[in-house]
Amino acid sequence: MPLNIPGILAPFQLLWNPRIILPHVIITDIRQLDFLALRKAGYRGAVFDKDNCLTIPYKDTLVPELKDAWRECREVFGERNVLIVSNSAGTGDDPGGIQAESVSHHLSVPVLHHGSPKPAYRCISAIRTYFSSLPNPIQDHELVVVGDRVFTDVVMANRMKRRVARATGEPDKAASTYDRRNGPLAVWTNGVWQKESMVMRWIERCLVDVVGRRMDGKSGLSDSLELFTKLSPHPTVPQGRIALIRSLLHRK
Ligand SMILES: [Mg+2]
């Protein structure tokens, strides 16, 4: 697998904007997402990572345990409004887009063809082009971005947020970064279907933990956690750790 330069550089953005790695919602897997609640809240489309989020890495078929949740997701949003954005299928590592075609067939939704890996701004641009080309175009703030990696999926979702100006005309950095009206909802699935990059995942968890403590409840995550999640029948990772992170992000 070639180097993901945008992903490698993403941690440096932490130096001036540590909130870039904070998701709005932390779940084990997509069975915990309440898609109907998301739709009722105004979210009309979704971007999903593939490897270790929907499929075993480098496989083209859905993890069987996710069958019902995936069907619900497609029914709620509509299949054209759900887009898979992978750093394997649909990229330059997928000659002729053969894997993208296969994944699209098995998962019944489109797979984005893109030349720059997540979280590159050019990848974001390709996502926007897709959703703006729909018969009923979908804007960034109407999207849910779901993925299992902080420095690719979560950072990309947060990079899609736009700053807002207060009445004074001055950009309000604190308000804009996590105001979900200005960008997608970032959902981090931290369950792992097949072990992969475990050291990096541990580092990502620790960083989310530390930054969550540092924000000390200023990140505006609590509403999203309560509104858009439900209990998973068969959690794949220990809930204690998730509960700890949730409580850190939840504090006021
Ligand atoms: Mg992944």
TrEMBL record:
Superkingdom: Eukaryota
Coiled coil start-end: none
GO molecular function: phosphatidylglycerophosphatase activity
Family annotation (InterPro entries): HAD-like_sf, HAD_sf, PGP_Pase, PGPP1/Gep4
SUPFAM superfamilies: HAD-like
Protein's recorded name: Uncharacterized protein
Natural source organism: Pisolithus tinctorius Marx 270
